[in-house]
Amino acid sequence: MNILKNFFSQWYKYVFWALMSVFFWGWIFTLLTDAPAAKKLVLCVDRPALRDEALAETLSADRPEGIKLIAVHSFDYYIFDTEELRCADLYIVGEREASTYIESFRPLDDSGFAAGGRALWTHEGVAYGVLIYDAETREGAAASYIEYTAEGETPQSYYLFFGAESAHREDGAAATLAEILFGLS
Fold this sequence. Notes:
2 domains, 5 helices, alpha+beta, eight-stranded mixed sheet, D-Maltodextrin-Binding Protein, domain 2
């Protein structure tokens, strides 16, 4: 009886160490399964209805050389860490919200997509995004993974943007992933 009384009088210490253990092993798991920015491509989609794991798995089948991990996340994933959102490699954003995130996008001038014959999203005369989903035709790339228009929503076109702070500005890995993305149905 004395042992139980002693145990329950110090319950907060046991809870503290249990929580510390969870955080420690979670951190270890993240270290083992994550990749550094130079070996990881991140696609952020401004749609909550997203089959992110299935899309990441499909994109990983043809991932560019030197890339260890492809991560696909909804913007909701970054609710507590918006700084990490700013460092993504690619973004899919609706035309109405695109100007909100303009500081996270880089112009298309140096990516080769501006001359690709696709419709572009421009801001102050500078091309930033490439049309990935057309609201008029209701057709777009990766539509089996991304629900571009939910029931009851006003349809809008979506564009693919390249990240201004991407770790893959020079190596072309983000552009390769974009081409793979455009090839998905």
